[in-house]
Hints:
Layout: E1 4-6, E2 23-25, E3 32-34, E4 44-46, E5 53-54, E6 59-63, E7 66-72, E8 77-84, E9 90-97, H1 116-126, E10 133-135, E11 139-140, E12 149-153, H2 164-167, H3 172-183, E13 189-195, E14 209-214, H4 222-229, E15 238-240, H5 243-255, E16 261-267, E17 275-280, H6 285-289, E18 296-300, E19 307-309, E20 321-326, H7 389-397, H8 401-406, H9 418-423, H10 430-444
Helix pairs in contact: 3-5
Amino acid sequence: xxxxxxxxxxxxxxxxxxxxxxxxxxxxxxxxxxxxxxxxxxxxxxxxxxxxxxxxxxxxxxxxxxxxxxxxxxxxxxxxxxxxxxxxxxxxxxxxxxxxxxxxxxxxxxxxxxxxxxxxxxxxxxxxxxxxxxxxxxxxxxxxxxxxxxxxxxxxxxxxxxxxxxxxxxxxxxxxxxxxxxxxxxxxxxxxxxxxxxxxxxxxxxxxxxxxxxxxxxxxxxxxxxxxxxxxxxxxxxxxxxxxxxxxxxxxxxxxxxxxxxxxxxxxxxxxxxxxxxxxxxxxxxxxxxxxxxxxxxxxxxxxxxxxxxxxxxxxxxxxxxxxxxxxxxxxxxxxxxxxxxxxxxxxxxxxxxxxxxxxxxxxxxxxxxxxxxxxxxxxxxxxxxxxxxxxxxxxxxxxxxxxxxxxxxxxxxxxxxxxxxxxxxxxxxxxxxxxxxxxxxxxx
Length: 445
């Protein structure tokens, strides 16, 4: 029987618009896009041009640092656009889908009999290798490395996050097959974590080191779970995989066909219908939520760590939800002096603390600009990790590599400090600072 790990630090942000337990199938989108910007430290090299015909699983581009890492098309059709930014930086490759989908023939191996090299080659060819994230640094895993362990979190504690027990209720066989395949990639343990009291069928899966967690967000962050199960030291390598991606890998191993279908949550106070949608990864935003009203922010991902998307954009290949909240372009005269029962605050500056169970309709307004960085100990109240946040951020800002190492740069990714950024009265962009520090470590190493 697993031992429960209870975390006392954290904060659950109760937002209005949680997705109802209803699944609808989104129509086939007019286009699907794969973007190298969804992944860290990738230098893409194109393999296609506008007008080329592709199948599900056809490579669209690869990473110049390692040409074996392919980024494949989620649908079959015609390459309709290659979008570039400044200095011809590749932003995305868009594919207009065919009515009848065709899947590329890919080599499939038996996970129980194949050796590790054959499994790695299969995942690389299919493009599913990009779903495996390496820590430290949060980059696509190095195929030549062997991690000391692999970690999978079966729940997400972020605001309005999808309920994976509901999303994957019919995917038990695929999840088991995916975990069995991943277990062959490490000589160490495969750790699976679920929320205490909401384990579903996860507790019955064999061949994994099972854990349960209880507490407030960020208890669902895999980085927080790693910190409390088996911390990352200098020189350690661990891999993480999202539980939905485990199911996709498992389906591929079982059927031999690449199927990029998944269920995402459409949530937020501005969602016309907060529910779950069955989509193909990389679908256009319009095909998922329809027409978006004015002054609505569409976020690919959750409100703390997701990226802003336009109505004519596409959902990130790595996102499992779309969040729709009001734009913060409305300002209140002397708002700070009002009781503000409708505003959420972690302090008692507003009287909203009298309503602990109330759901809030929050917007994107920061309610102030960036201010001097003051060491207060506030962040340590919300981050359930032994990391001194303010000192780590200052070490990053002055580019002191030794102090960054000593203060925990190997253990954190931007998502782990997202909650600290939310409660920060100084409005410091902590996630970007951490990413800059990680990029510096990669460059120097």
